[in-house]
Amino acid sequence: MRKVTLLITLLTLVLISACTKLPPSEETGVGPGEYKGIVHREDIIEENESLKEELDIIKKELEELQKENENLANKEENLVSMLEEAQSKLKIIESEDVPQFSVENADLDSIVSYLKDSGNLLNDSLKGIEIIKEDHPLVFRTIGYGENYSQIFIWEEGNKEPFLIEGGVIDKEGSYSWLGEYLLITDSKSESKVLDINNKKITGSFKDAQKIYLIEGTTVILFKDSNNNFLLYDFIKDSTKQINLDSSKYTDFNLKNNDIVFMGEYIDNNGIEYEIKASLSLDKLKEIYELNNSVETVESQETGDTV
To answer: How many structural domains compose the chain?
Structure first.
């Protein structure tokens, strides 16, 4: 009987032991035997920081590679630009006709440098490039090219090529001078032309001027021709008026203070020689001959109104 009771007791203990299971941990929520493969939170944070550092290093390397590629591309563009500019300069040297000018960098300093370098290459030849006005807009001329000997160009900053002035030619014996903001071109046949720099065109022409004066504030030139006629020429309206003076007596003029002084000589019937002068203020001259100021004249020219 005892053996049976003992056997039953042992069986009961075995069954109870087999059915007993420890509950999951309240802190981790993981039961015994389930910790395999579970990483601590600190380890995860440390690994993430390590990955972030590696990612930053890779990003930095990529940025450096991209910057290096951009530098190589810029160097390639610069080399191409230098090659094209060198070819342009070579054509300038070889050309017999008026050459073509072209730059990649169209800022004023680059244009000036390009023209000066091209001119230096021509120092030992009969050809040349002369910069007439170096600030904006730049004005220059070629020398020794083509039938007209010298051609004037205007080159505005930002443009890769200059503007050729139609009619802006100077023969070998010709010359140029400034009339305020206008350029006066005179050829060997005493024909004069006025170049309007701002509008890039020849605005008027006249012949046989022995002495010239631009009346301030107007687009009118006072000049004396070979017959001692004193003429007022408006080069915007292309009109001429003659000052009423005896050309047999008056032969010259000068500006004194704010007056135009006409001078000459007179010999009477007894052979006595006199010096004579006639003076007229600039304001009175403008009033008598209805000389409009330059702003009014240009506006009239643009709108088509008559003044």
So the answer is: 2
Instruction: Give the pair of three-digit tokens for residue 161.
Output: 């090529």
Indicate the residue among 184, 207, 230 that finishes a domain.
207
Give the pair of three-digit tokens for residue 230: 């004193």
Q: What is the pLDDT along the chain (307 residues), one digit of tens a residue?
A: 554 455 555 555 545 555 555 455 555 555 555 545 555 677 677 777 777 877 788 888 778 878 877 776 666 666 656 555 556 555 665 566 778 888 888 899 999 998 998 888 776 667 889 999 999 899 999 988 877 789 999 999 999 999 999 999 998 889 999 998 999 999 888 899 999 999 999 999 999 998 999 998 899 999 999 899 999 999 999 999 999 999 889 999 999 989 999 999 988 888 899 999 999 999 999 999 998 765 444 444 444 433 2
**Both tokens of residue 287?**
């009033």
Is the full-model pTM beyond 0.85?
no
Amino acid present at 117: D
Pair 292, 214 in one domain: yes
Question: For the chain, where are the alpha helices, taking DSSP H only?
Answer: 2-19, 41-94, 108-121, 282-288, 294-303
Element (H, E) at 168: strand 163-170
